Amino acid sequence: QVRLVESGGGLVQAGGSLRLSCAASGRTFSRYVMAWFRQAPGKEREFVATISLSGWSDRRTYYADSVKGRFTVSRDSAKNTVYLQMASLKPEDTAVYYCACTAGVPPSFTNTYSYKETYDDWGQGTQVTVSS
User: Fold this and answer.
1) 75 Cβ partners below 8 Å, 6+ apart?
2) Which pLDDT does position 114 carry in this prediction?
């Protein structure tokens, strides 16, 4: 099991930026697919972004349509950390943001990367509030 700890959330005005971090325990960070999800009050937890294994030559990233072009996911294996750089924030981005991971690349990952069930371990979340 991997322990994930998110940080970097806060209050920001619309149009502003934030960078979230997710620190992972364990020495096999590079073998985990990492993802970000978010959950707004009264809504289901939804996919935001994912980044594939560190060892892949084509470090693949996938994004929800709602954040494409505004958010960037990245990882630093030396620091066992995955980041979510968020720009041009909108009030509808307000949510608790969660980091998640799964070991290896699951079957049919290109079809399942946005499903909560794909990921085994989750952090406690960090609140992001965007004011209008």
Assistant:
1) 34, 51, 54, 59, 81, 82, 83
2) 94
DSSP 8-state symbol, 7: E
* pLDDT tens digits along 7-34: 999 999 999 999 999 999 976 777 889 9
| pLDDT of 57 above 80 | no
Nearest to 85 by CA among 98, 97, 100, 73: 73
Q: How far is the C-alpha of 43 from the C-alpha of 41, rounded, in Å? A: 6
Chain-wide mean pLDDT for the chain? Answer: 92
C-alpha 10/C-alpha 7 separation (Å) is 9
d(CA 34, CA 1): 14
**Token representation of residue 49:** 């972004």
Residue 83 in contact with residue 97, Cβ under 8 Å? no
